Amino acid sequence: MSSSEGASAPDWYAEPLSWAKLQHIESWLLGAGPERWPDEVPGAELELAQGRVDLARRERATLSDATVRARLSLAEAGFRRVLSDSRADAQDRRHADAGIGEVAALLDGPAPSVADVGAFKIRKRSAWGARPSIPSRVHRNTRPWRKITVHHSATSSAGLATGSATASAEAIRLIQKDHMETKGWGDIAYHFLIDPAGRVFQGRDIGYQGAHAGGNNNIANIGICLLGDFEHARPDPRAMRSLEELISALSARHGIARSEVHGHNDFRATECPGKNLMAWVQRYSHGSGL
Question: How far apart are CA 103 and CA 107, in angstroms?
Protein backbone atom coordinates (compact mmCIF):
# COMPACT_ATOMS: atom_id res chain seq x y z
CA MET A 1 0.00 0.00 0.00
CA SER A 2 1.37 3.40 -0.92
CA SER A 3 1.38 6.16 1.69
CA SER A 4 -0.49 8.44 -0.70
CA GLU A 5 -3.36 5.97 -0.91
CA GLY A 6 -3.68 5.72 2.86
CA ALA A 7 -3.61 9.50 3.24
CA SER A 8 -6.02 10.44 0.46
CA ALA A 9 -9.53 11.71 1.07
CA PRO A 10 -12.26 9.05 0.77
CA ASP A 11 -13.12 8.68 -2.91
CA TRP A 12 -14.80 5.30 -3.10
CA TYR A 13 -18.46 6.15 -2.50
CA ALA A 14 -19.37 6.24 -6.18
CA GLU A 15 -17.55 3.00 -6.98
CA PRO A 16 -19.67 -0.12 -7.64
CA LEU A 17 -19.45 -2.83 -5.00
CA SER A 18 -16.46 -5.11 -5.46
CA TRP A 19 -13.70 -6.67 -3.42
CA ALA A 20 -11.29 -4.14 -4.93
CA LYS A 21 -13.40 -1.33 -3.49
CA LEU A 22 -13.43 -2.96 -0.05
CA GLN A 23 -9.67 -3.44 -0.19
CA HIS A 24 -9.35 0.25 -1.05
CA ILE A 25 -11.38 1.20 2.03
CA GLU A 26 -9.50 -1.20 4.28
CA SER A 27 -6.17 0.19 3.09
CA TRP A 28 -7.41 3.70 3.84
CA LEU A 29 -8.45 2.70 7.37
CA LEU A 30 -5.14 0.98 8.03
CA GLY A 31 -3.13 3.83 6.56
CA ALA A 32 -2.90 7.53 7.30
CA GLY A 33 -6.46 8.29 6.22
CA PRO A 34 -8.03 8.25 9.70
CA GLU A 35 -5.37 10.61 11.02
CA ARG A 36 -5.91 13.14 8.26
CA TRP A 37 -9.67 12.66 7.87
CA PRO A 38 -10.92 11.51 11.30
CA ASP A 39 -14.55 12.50 10.74
CA GLU A 40 -14.72 10.18 7.72
CA VAL A 41 -13.88 7.07 9.74
CA PRO A 42 -17.45 6.05 10.73
CA GLY A 43 -18.58 6.34 7.12
CA ALA A 44 -15.63 4.28 5.93
CA GLU A 45 -16.27 1.61 8.55
CA LEU A 46 -19.93 1.44 7.53
CA GLU A 47 -19.11 1.24 3.84
CA LEU A 48 -16.63 -1.57 4.48
CA ALA A 49 -18.89 -3.51 6.84
CA GLN A 50 -21.99 -3.17 4.65
CA GLY A 51 -19.97 -4.17 1.60
CA ARG A 52 -18.79 -7.32 3.36
CA VAL A 53 -22.39 -8.19 4.24
CA ASP A 54 -23.65 -7.55 0.72
CA LEU A 55 -20.88 -9.58 -0.92
CA ALA A 56 -21.27 -12.42 1.58
CA ARG A 57 -24.96 -12.54 0.72
CA ARG A 58 -24.29 -12.36 -3.01
CA GLU A 59 -21.59 -15.05 -3.02
CA ARG A 60 -22.75 -17.37 -0.23
CA ALA A 61 -24.02 -20.04 -2.63
CA THR A 62 -20.45 -20.58 -3.87
CA LEU A 63 -18.66 -20.32 -0.50
CA SER A 64 -18.21 -22.62 2.45
CA ASP A 65 -20.24 -21.83 5.56
CA ALA A 66 -17.03 -21.13 7.47
CA THR A 67 -15.95 -18.51 4.92
CA VAL A 68 -19.33 -16.78 4.99
CA ARG A 69 -19.31 -16.70 8.78
CA ALA A 70 -15.78 -15.30 8.88
CA ARG A 71 -16.72 -12.49 6.51
CA LEU A 72 -19.88 -11.70 8.45
CA SER A 73 -17.95 -11.66 11.73
CA LEU A 74 -15.61 -9.04 10.27
CA ALA A 75 -18.63 -7.03 9.15
CA GLU A 76 -20.24 -7.20 12.59
CA ALA A 77 -17.00 -6.03 14.20
CA GLY A 78 -17.00 -3.03 11.88
CA PHE A 79 -20.59 -2.12 12.74
CA ARG A 80 -19.79 -2.38 16.45
CA ARG A 81 -16.78 -0.09 16.05
CA VAL A 82 -19.12 2.53 14.63
CA LEU A 83 -21.45 2.19 17.62
CA SER A 84 -18.54 2.82 19.97
CA ASP A 85 -17.14 5.73 17.93
CA SER A 86 -18.01 9.15 19.39
CA ARG A 87 -17.74 10.67 15.91
CA ALA A 88 -20.65 8.58 14.60
CA ASP A 89 -23.91 10.52 14.27
CA ALA A 90 -27.45 9.21 14.81
CA GLN A 91 -27.80 8.04 11.21
CA ASP A 92 -24.48 6.20 11.40
CA ARG A 93 -25.65 4.44 14.57
CA ARG A 94 -28.96 3.44 13.01
CA HIS A 95 -27.09 2.03 10.02
CA ALA A 96 -24.75 0.11 12.32
CA ASP A 97 -27.64 -1.28 14.39
CA ALA A 98 -29.42 -2.37 11.22
CA GLY A 99 -26.21 -3.93 9.92
CA ILE A 100 -25.80 -6.01 13.06
CA GLY A 101 -29.38 -7.19 12.55
CA GLU A 102 -28.59 -8.13 8.94
CA VAL A 103 -25.56 -10.13 10.08
CA ALA A 104 -27.64 -11.96 12.67
CA ALA A 105 -30.32 -12.79 10.11
CA LEU A 106 -27.72 -14.11 7.65
CA LEU A 107 -25.97 -16.19 10.29
CA ASP A 108 -29.18 -17.70 11.64
CA GLY A 109 -31.61 -17.41 8.74
CA PRO A 110 -32.04 -19.11 5.37
CA ALA A 111 -30.03 -18.23 2.30
CA PRO A 112 -32.60 -16.39 0.12
CA SER A 113 -32.27 -12.63 0.04
CA VAL A 114 -34.25 -9.83 -1.52
CA ALA A 115 -31.25 -8.50 -3.40
CA ASP A 116 -31.92 -10.67 -6.44
CA VAL A 117 -35.72 -10.33 -6.68
CA GLY A 118 -36.32 -8.85 -10.10
CA ALA A 119 -34.11 -6.50 -12.07
CA PHE A 120 -35.04 -3.32 -10.21
CA LYS A 121 -33.35 -1.86 -7.16
CA ILE A 122 -34.60 -2.76 -3.70
CA ARG A 123 -33.40 -0.42 -0.95
CA LYS A 124 -32.09 -2.50 1.88
CA ARG A 125 -32.96 -2.18 5.54
CA SER A 126 -29.78 -0.26 6.16
CA ALA A 127 -30.92 2.39 3.67
CA TRP A 128 -33.93 3.32 5.81
CA GLY A 129 -32.27 2.82 9.19
CA ALA A 130 -34.16 -0.29 10.26
CA ARG A 131 -33.87 -1.53 13.81
CA PRO A 132 -32.61 -5.10 14.19
CA SER A 133 -35.41 -7.62 14.48
CA ILE A 134 -36.05 -9.36 17.81
CA PRO A 135 -35.23 -13.03 17.14
CA SER A 136 -37.56 -14.38 19.82
CA ARG A 137 -40.53 -12.63 18.21
CA VAL A 138 -40.09 -13.62 14.57
CA HIS A 139 -40.75 -16.99 13.01
CA ARG A 140 -38.71 -18.49 10.23
CA ASN A 141 -40.63 -19.31 7.07
CA THR A 142 -40.38 -23.06 6.52
CA ARG A 143 -42.78 -23.49 3.60
CA PRO A 144 -42.69 -22.40 -0.04
CA TRP A 145 -44.22 -18.97 -0.52
CA ARG A 146 -47.73 -19.38 -1.92
CA LYS A 147 -49.49 -16.03 -1.45
CA ILE A 148 -48.84 -12.31 -1.74
CA THR A 149 -50.94 -9.82 0.21
CA VAL A 150 -51.11 -6.11 -0.62
CA HIS A 151 -51.63 -3.47 2.09
CA HIS A 152 -51.63 0.28 2.49
CA SER A 153 -50.13 2.16 5.41
CA ALA A 154 -53.42 4.08 5.87
CA THR A 155 -51.52 7.33 6.36
CA SER A 156 -51.43 10.27 4.00
CA SER A 157 -48.69 10.16 1.39
CA ALA A 158 -49.07 13.82 0.43
CA GLY A 159 -45.66 14.71 1.79
CA LEU A 160 -43.97 11.76 0.10
CA ALA A 161 -45.08 12.10 -3.52
CA THR A 162 -42.44 14.71 -4.34
CA GLY A 163 -40.22 13.94 -1.37
CA SER A 164 -36.88 12.27 -1.06
CA ALA A 165 -36.02 8.73 -0.12
CA THR A 166 -35.10 10.18 3.27
CA ALA A 167 -38.71 11.22 3.91
CA SER A 168 -39.94 7.77 2.93
CA ALA A 169 -37.33 6.16 5.17
CA GLU A 170 -38.59 8.21 8.10
CA ALA A 171 -42.16 7.08 7.38
CA ILE A 172 -41.05 3.44 7.32
CA ARG A 173 -39.13 3.81 10.58
CA LEU A 174 -42.32 5.12 12.20
CA ILE A 175 -44.23 2.07 10.95
CA GLN A 176 -41.56 -0.24 12.34
CA LYS A 177 -41.59 1.65 15.66
CA ASP A 178 -45.36 1.18 15.93
CA HIS A 179 -45.19 -2.49 15.04
CA MET A 180 -42.40 -3.26 17.50
CA GLU A 181 -43.25 -0.94 20.39
CA THR A 182 -47.04 -0.69 20.26
CA LYS A 183 -47.98 -4.06 18.78
CA GLY A 184 -45.08 -5.96 20.31
CA TRP A 185 -44.02 -7.66 17.08
CA GLY A 186 -40.45 -8.68 16.38
CA ASP A 187 -40.02 -6.44 13.33
CA ILE A 188 -41.93 -4.42 10.78
CA ALA A 189 -44.85 -6.54 9.57
CA TYR A 190 -44.26 -6.35 5.81
CA HIS A 191 -41.56 -7.86 3.64
CA PHE A 192 -41.55 -4.95 1.18
CA LEU A 193 -42.77 -1.35 1.18
CA ILE A 194 -43.26 0.97 -1.80
CA ASP A 195 -43.38 4.76 -1.63
CA PRO A 196 -45.33 7.05 -4.02
CA ALA A 197 -42.23 7.60 -6.14
CA GLY A 198 -42.07 3.86 -6.79
CA ARG A 199 -39.07 3.18 -4.58
CA VAL A 200 -39.10 -0.36 -3.18
CA PHE A 201 -37.78 -0.88 0.35
CA GLN A 202 -36.86 -4.13 2.05
CA GLY A 203 -38.96 -4.71 5.16
CA ARG A 204 -38.85 -7.87 7.23
CA ASP A 205 -36.29 -10.36 5.96
CA ILE A 206 -37.88 -12.63 3.36
CA GLY A 207 -36.66 -15.65 5.31
CA TYR A 208 -39.23 -14.97 8.03
CA GLN A 209 -43.01 -14.97 8.19
CA GLY A 210 -44.61 -11.55 8.19
CA ALA A 211 -47.12 -10.19 10.71
CA HIS A 212 -49.41 -8.53 8.20
CA ALA A 213 -52.38 -10.81 7.53
CA GLY A 214 -53.32 -12.12 10.96
CA GLY A 215 -52.39 -15.42 12.63
CA ASN A 216 -52.01 -18.41 10.32
CA ASN A 217 -52.77 -16.19 7.32
CA ASN A 218 -49.14 -15.08 7.55
CA ILE A 219 -47.83 -18.56 6.75
CA ALA A 220 -46.24 -18.69 3.27
CA ASN A 221 -47.66 -15.19 2.61
CA ILE A 222 -45.44 -12.31 1.42
CA GLY A 223 -46.61 -8.89 2.59
CA ILE A 224 -46.25 -5.73 0.48
CA CYS A 225 -47.31 -2.31 1.78
CA LEU A 226 -47.80 0.85 -0.28
CA LEU A 227 -47.27 4.06 1.66
CA GLY A 228 -50.51 6.06 1.58
CA ASP A 229 -54.23 5.99 2.38
CA PHE A 230 -55.97 4.46 -0.63
CA GLU A 231 -59.42 4.41 0.82
CA HIS A 232 -59.48 8.17 0.19
CA ALA A 233 -56.86 8.70 -2.54
CA ARG A 234 -55.56 6.92 -5.62
CA PRO A 235 -52.11 5.34 -5.64
CA ASP A 236 -49.39 7.09 -7.61
CA PRO A 237 -48.85 5.40 -11.02
CA ARG A 238 -45.14 5.08 -10.24
CA ALA A 239 -45.94 3.07 -7.12
CA MET A 240 -48.33 0.88 -9.07
CA ARG A 241 -45.72 0.12 -11.73
CA SER A 242 -43.28 -0.94 -9.02
CA LEU A 243 -45.97 -3.00 -7.29
CA GLU A 244 -46.74 -4.92 -10.48
CA GLU A 245 -43.05 -5.46 -11.25
CA LEU A 246 -42.35 -6.65 -7.70
CA ILE A 247 -45.34 -9.02 -7.63
CA SER A 248 -44.40 -10.40 -11.05
CA ALA A 249 -40.80 -10.99 -9.96
CA LEU A 250 -41.82 -12.65 -6.69
CA SER A 251 -44.42 -14.77 -8.45
CA ALA A 252 -41.90 -15.96 -11.02
CA ARG A 253 -39.28 -16.71 -8.37
CA HIS A 254 -41.60 -18.61 -6.03
CA GLY A 255 -44.23 -20.01 -8.40
CA ILE A 256 -47.11 -17.96 -6.98
CA ALA A 257 -50.32 -17.94 -9.04
CA ARG A 258 -52.00 -14.63 -9.92
CA SER A 259 -55.12 -15.88 -8.16
CA GLU A 260 -53.09 -15.96 -4.93
CA VAL A 261 -52.44 -12.21 -4.96
CA HIS A 262 -54.75 -10.77 -2.32
CA GLY A 263 -55.71 -7.60 -0.55
CA HIS A 264 -55.57 -7.52 3.23
CA ASN A 265 -59.37 -7.47 3.41
CA ASP A 266 -59.49 -10.89 1.77
CA PHE A 267 -58.39 -12.24 5.16
CA ARG A 268 -59.76 -9.81 7.73
CA ALA A 269 -62.58 -7.30 8.17
CA THR A 270 -60.60 -4.18 7.35
CA GLU A 271 -60.59 -1.33 4.84
CA CYS A 272 -56.95 -2.17 4.01
CA PRO A 273 -55.63 -1.83 1.32
CA GLY A 274 -58.29 0.78 0.56
CA LYS A 275 -60.93 0.60 -2.15
CA ASN A 276 -58.75 2.33 -4.77
CA LEU A 277 -55.88 -0.12 -4.36
CA MET A 278 -58.10 -3.15 -3.84
CA ALA A 279 -59.71 -2.53 -7.24
CA TRP A 280 -56.29 -3.01 -8.84
CA VAL A 281 -55.57 -6.13 -6.76
CA GLN A 282 -58.80 -7.70 -7.96
CA ARG A 283 -58.03 -6.89 -11.59
CA TYR A 284 -54.51 -8.25 -11.26
CA SER A 285 -55.54 -11.49 -9.55
CA HIS A 286 -58.08 -12.10 -12.32
CA GLY A 287 -55.53 -11.66 -15.06
CA SER A 288 -55.11 -7.95 -15.86
CA GLY A 289 -52.72 -5.39 -14.44
CA LEU A 290 -52.32 -1.64 -14.84
Answer: 6
